[in-house]
Amino acid sequence: MHELSIVSSVLDQLEELKKQHEGAHFSKVGLRVGELAGVDVDCLRFGFECVVKDTPWESLALEIEQVARRQRCPGCNAEFQAENWATACPHCGEAATITVAGEELQIAYVEVDE
Amino acid sequence: MSQIAVEKKVLNENQKIAAELREKFREHKILVVNIISSPGSGKTTLLERTLERMDKSKRVVLLTGDLQTENDATRLAQWGFPVKQIITGGTCHLDAKMIEKHLADWPLESFDVLIIENVGNLVCPTSYDLGEHFKIVILSVTEGEDKPLKYPSIFVKSELMILSKVDLLPYVPFSADLAKSNARTVHPGIQIIETSSKGDGLDEWMRWLEDKLAAVKSGELVSA
After folding, report:
1. Touching check for B92 and chain A: CB below 8 Å?
2. Which of A13, A53, A97, B43: CA 20 to 30 A from B63?
3. pLDDT at position A114, please?
4. What value of ipTM does the predicted structure carry?
């Protein structure tokens, strides 16, 4: 499981961000995780708890927004959610559609106490 | 309370190094493939058969990742191509930094192909860009046909699926058609080559590599 390395990467970036916001207390971090990201959200939550424990990040809350896979059809331009991995366009039947969402593994925001 | 929009990739640092590697590979026209599968699907065996057949004038190098031991590098070194083992010491995937570090003392300008054998794992290596042109996933017929449905990310991100150990098909309850149809459900455009260590499909696989290498050399294939 690589969720621990992902948590470390998040905290490394927050350390950097802290330097730009001196004195601010980060109370929450929001992550965006796509269903194609190869990340298990429960493992990520568990790994996060383990890593922040007994560190200055202990009070940091974690919110995860899960993003479903969305496809766009190059034929008819329809955008649709790919249910059960069926990626063919439900409108015109085009098989080769393009993934437009679901690969995210991002830090979306941090919340700061004034 | 206020919110700061960050909007950055979590693996930003990995992405940055991968982009630098990609730039180097482009500059020196090196084809780079990243081979991913479960443990025991036949990554090392496929590479042994590949090196055995490889035109010795082609300058091929390999990086092979494992949690422990130099065994794979030792197996692969006997064909005379440079091989380096990356021992991750427990980490379940290779990341771009490990690739950068292990390539540092190799003269990149004198290589044509870099083959990266990732750690045996269908999940974690999926998230880490190594600057490669293609991910290649191997599924063996001694696994389940539903692996593409259980671990879709890697099948979605792979250009090519190698269905390995097909010489065992008469002896195992595995439907190659179902496995291929599952792979095409999650990735309609995925290419599939069926191979075995006895020689099935190896000509087709070598041709696939040759074609991609030619496309890199001509500048037609540039990794984004």
Report:
1. yes
2. A13
3. 65
4. 0.83
